[in-house]
Amino acid sequence: MFNAQYFRTFITLVETGSFTRTARHLEMTQPGVSQHVRKLEQYLDKPLLERQGRRFTLTEAGRRAYDYGLRLFAEHEQFRHSLDDDALDTGECRIASPGSVGLMFYPYILGQQQMSPGLTVSYSFAFSHEIVSDVLAGRHDLGIVTEPIRHPELNCSLWHQEPLCLVVPADFAGTSLTELMGIGFINYSDGVNHAGALLRSNFPDEFRSMSQFRRQGFTNEVGMVLDAVARGLGFTVVSRLVLETSPWQRQVKELDLPVIEHETLHLVSRSGTKIARRYARLLEGFREQRMRERFGPGDIASLP
Questions:
Q1: Which residues pair with 145 in a beta bridge?
Q2: Which segments constitute the HTH lysR-type domain (predicted)?
């Protein structure tokens, strides 16, 4: 007989790697954990574990049962949350985004949660490929990515644009591409693409590629990249969201450039899934706030 709790116990066992830790986590006895695994093996008519004393490894059937169990509970959670589609002030918000967005969007959502105690926020900071995988697996209802995604099981739509900023140490006095080459470039996950787009537009006669610049370092956390710039180690290009939330913004400065380029943000969700209205309100509220900050309240009505 199918029993979802047997799958829950088995998933926990695989993830903890221990019958003892599983029993403690699920507030069960260790024999109870063993019984759930045996019942699941009987139901599937396949051995799921190869036991070596207190240790175990998964059989092929065990690996497939684990993957199926993850999908099963992800779909269950997605169904449960979908029942609150029409509620604006209640329900869980499961969102993932890169750090460049989340540094400001996550605090904004927390502020909305304070005003609407019925909201629950589950927010993950991740790279775009991780976000896509998690949305497909049902672990997030909505993902925000910096590149358009083409996938038969995903919807992808343009949401918002943030200006890119060329950021240099506060005492940097140069303005030319040659002077930027002299101090070198601080990279991060989207750094080369962002810097290439901005420099190509503003120095069309001189810029060839980012290989012209000496690499002065790399971090996979965009929120930390301005620490290196503040220490005089080089320049970088980040979205305005990152610059405005950085604790080092007084130790760096933005170079004024004639041509503006943007980080374009896209929304991804599973095809055929209706996104709850509370998400639309949060997304539009944040976008309008950013527009007011950039253009003033009198100008946003004319913006797309």
A1: 266
A2: 2-59
